[in-house]
Design goal:
The protein is mainly alpha-helical. It contains four helices and two strands. It has a two-stranded parallel sheet. The two termini are about 30 Å apart.
């Protein structure tokens, strides 16, 4: 729900432990701002609206040098497939 916050927390722990860690954050799953334009009739209140991301952003983050990739919503296979595509 908050990949940026998760990355910040992980980064703080890594710093405390003296670990240099390259963390990437994949965002874009939050579609709440587009909800009205989608024309969907949903029961109120809608607390969150997310799309599932695929493997490509994970692959790209690893290719850019990330050691850890934190995403919002992604399909189950994306975690493994993104790493395999990178390798």
């Amino acid at each position: 729900m908050n990949p940026r916050g998760c990355a910040d927390a992980l980064s703080a722990i890594a710093r405390e432990q003296g670990v240099d860690l390259r963390i990437a954050v994949v965002e874009g799953d939050d579609v709440m701002p587009q909800l009205d334009s989608l024309g969907l009739r949903l029961p109120a209140p809608v607390l969150t609206a997310n799309a599932y991301l695929g493997a490509l952003p994970i692959r790209d983050a690893l290719a850019a040098g990330a050691q850890v990739v934190i995403t919002g919503r992604c399909v189950d296979s994306a975690v493994t497939l993104g790493a395999l595509m990178h390798e």
